[in-house]
């Protein structure tokens, strides 16, 4: 029975404009898996009760979720789910029992293309036939001047999988450091064999490849590789994506698989968990697993146009402090026509209409839905984690410059909520009354900015993605962030450089002079990155000597 109950938890699918949008069914109407349920025995009687049901009723355990004390059980052939749930709920030794429901993916289908990413930077451009309002965006380019994320930050995407061969995603896939590829052994002892890139819980194998397209689109908005000359850029284009496939090709997925995926993300240290799905009834087991996570758990508000305060949409409506519930806005900063809302149950809004991102097979396409809004908030959470980790590293007085815990999940959520852009159309619709602003959130977080933050160079060359600035950032990360003296210089630089950069960017002649003066610095940095610091130092000495000789010669001519 326990197994049957756990299996009956809601499946997850994506909603699109061709299919009816799930409005959050009542438990009595919601679809669930047959022949299995989810059960939690009271802790003191767990072993005895489990043995009783196995012996007397032939109810067997499929798997145990030890973190939350829940059993996923299989029912004997003659027993229905309804009978099993009633039986267990009437047992005083059982804390709760529930079907293994189905959930749904919250979507409405519909770098050279950066100009089309209105959610990142809205200039009022025409995107897919819709003209937007200037600055109705998350201010991503401004945030990227401070940080573009860090490879130490891991984002788990619980979805239909990820196309790992996509050229805009392959460079940002998480790799399990404790697993040896292809040896058929569970090297890290986490219960999964050869889980190099994550896991496919829907098909129970180590290949979380996307056979639907939804997960790949979501992933692109979070972490498509930036500044690579192709396609699009993710909000946090230097973080790593842990692909956790809980949905099948038809977009359906069981609660038990979602619970397993969250448990895996928790175990393997994911910092943020993206959940662009929902719509099933309340599941205590799913709630318990989410609540146990130390990650930022970002969830879609749903696509039914309903008030979640009145008709809850799970998992976004769970009252767990580590959940950030996200509604969708259009290019004109209006609440999207399909987006759910709720003054007490939905936290923030993010772009979710006509969102261009990666799709399976190496291409790009537009999609709409709160599924598309969630990855903007997920990417922002990853940026904040990266920036705060950088702060922890550079403020660390020990000899270790490799790790830093940074902000907690609750601190990141608070920071995102506190820094939204207030939007009139959202006032009285969601808790904060605003759309997320990546720049304001990142700027308000202490630290040196991780992989962004070259303020003076960015002001001089015009963009954090400009090649000269990229070289300087890479030099900083490789040669300065890795030692105490370098970190001291960075702290001093980031104390004074932002105000100088603000002044430089408003004076064209000064910008030109700064650009010119930075060219030798960029050249020396490039040599160091390419050939090592010793040759770079020699190159620098020769360059300085040549400049001095040139200057002396110039002075001599003037005297003559």
Key features of this structure:
alpha/beta, Rossmann fold, 6-stranded antiparallel β-sheet, 560 residues, 7-stranded parallel β-sheet, 20 strands, single chain
Question: Overview of this structure, please?
Answer:
The protein is α/β, with parallel strands linked by helices and 560 residues long. It folds into two domains: 1-380, Peptidase S8/S53 domain (Rossmann fold, 3-Layer(aba) Sandwich); 409-536, no CATH class. The protein is 36% helix and 17% strand. The chain has helices spanning 2-7, 46-57, 81-89, 140-144, 214-223, 255-267, 284-291, 370-395, 409-418, 438-443, 455-461, 467-480, 484-505, 508-531, 533-559; strands spanning 32-41, 60-65, 70-74, 94-105, 108-109, 126-127, 130-131, 154-159, 198-200, 240-245, 253-254, 272-275, 277-278, 296-300, 323-329, 348-351, 355-359, 363-368, 421-422, 434-435. Helix 5 (214-223) links the parallel strand 9 (198-200) and strand 10 (240-245). Helix 6 runs parallel beside helix 7. The termini are far apart. The model is unreliable at 1-24, 392-404 and 447-451 (pLDDT under 50).
Summarize this structure briefly.
This protein has helices spanning 2-7, 46-57, 81-89, 140-144, 214-223, 255-267, 284-291, 370-395, 409-418, 438-443, 455-461, 467-480, 484-505, 508-531, 533-559, and strands at 32-41, 60-65, 70-74, 94-105, 108-109, 126-127, 130-131, 154-159, 198-200, 240-245, 253-254, 272-275, 277-278, 296-300, 323-329, 348-351, 355-359, 363-368, 421-422, 434-435.
């Amino acid at each position: 029975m326990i197994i049957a109950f756990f299996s009956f938890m809601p499946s997850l699918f994506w909603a699109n404009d061709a299919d009816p949008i799930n409005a959050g069914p009542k438990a009595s109407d919601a679809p669930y898996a047959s022949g299995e349920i989810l059960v939690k025995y009271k802790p003191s009687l767990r072993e005895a009760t489990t043995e009783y049901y196995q012996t007397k009723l032939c109810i067997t355990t499929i798997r145990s979720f030890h973190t939350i004390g829940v059993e996923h059980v299989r029912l004997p052939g003659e027993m229905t789910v309804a009978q099993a749930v009633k039986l267990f709920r009437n047992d005083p030794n059982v804390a709760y029992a529930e079907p293994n429901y189905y959930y749904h993916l919250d979507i409405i289908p519909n770098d050279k293309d950066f100009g089309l990413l209105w959610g990142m930077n809205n200039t009022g451009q025409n995107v897919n036939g819709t003209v937007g309002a200037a600055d109705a965006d998350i201010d991503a380019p401004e945030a990227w001047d401070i940080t573009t994320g860090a490879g130490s930050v891991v984002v788990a995407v619980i979805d239909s999988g990820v196309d790992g061969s996509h050229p805009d995603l392959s460079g940002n896939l998480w790799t399990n450091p404790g697993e040896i590829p292809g040896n058929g052994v569970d090297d890290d002892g986490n219960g999964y064999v050869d889980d190099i890139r994550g896991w496919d819980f829907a098909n129970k194998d180590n290949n979380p490849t996307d056979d639907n397209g939804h997960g790949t689109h979501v992933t692109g908005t979070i972490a498509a590789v930036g500044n690579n000359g192709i396609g699009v850029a993710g909000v946090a284009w230097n973080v790593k994506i842990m692909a956790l496939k809980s949905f099948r090709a038809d977009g359906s997925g069981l609660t038990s698989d979602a619970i397993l995926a969250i448990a895996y993300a928790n175990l393997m240290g994911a910092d943020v968990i993206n959940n662009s799905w929902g719509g099933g009834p309340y599941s205590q087991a799913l709630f318990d697993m989410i609540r146990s996570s130390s990650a930022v758990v970002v969830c879609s508000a749903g696509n039914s146009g309903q008030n979640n305060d009145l008709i809850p949409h799970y998992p976004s409506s769970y009252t767990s402090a580590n959940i950030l519930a996200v509604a969708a806005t259009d290019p004109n900063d209006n609440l999207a026509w399909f987006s759910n809302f709720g003054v007490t149950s939905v936290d923030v809004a993010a772009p979710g209409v006509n969102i261009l991102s990666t799709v399976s097979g190496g291409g790009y396409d537009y999609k709409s839905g709160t599924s598309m809004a969630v990855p903007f908030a997920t990417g922002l959470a990853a940026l904040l984690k990266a920036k705060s980790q950088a702060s922890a590293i550079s403020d660390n007085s020990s000899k270790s410059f490799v790790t830093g815990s940074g902000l907690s999940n609750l601190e990141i959520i608070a920071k995102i909520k506190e820094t939204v852009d207030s939007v009139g159309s959202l006032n009285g619709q969601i808790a904060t009354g605003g759309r997320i602003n990546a720049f304001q959130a990142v700027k308000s977080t202490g630290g040196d900015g991780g992989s962004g933050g070259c303020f003076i160079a960015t002001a001089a060359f015009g963009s954090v993605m400009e090649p000269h600035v990229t070289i300087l950032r890479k030099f900083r990360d490789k040669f300065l962030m890795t030692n105490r003296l370098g970190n001291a210089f960075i702290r001093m630089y980031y104390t004074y450089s932002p105000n100088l950069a603000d002044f430089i960017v408003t004076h064209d002649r000064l910008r030109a002079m700064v650009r010119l003066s930075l060219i030798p610095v960029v050249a020396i940095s490039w040599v160091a990155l390419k050939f090592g610091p010793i040759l770079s130092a020699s190159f620098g000495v020769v360059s300085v000597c040549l400049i001095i000789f040139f200057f002396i010669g110039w002075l001599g001519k003037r005297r003559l």
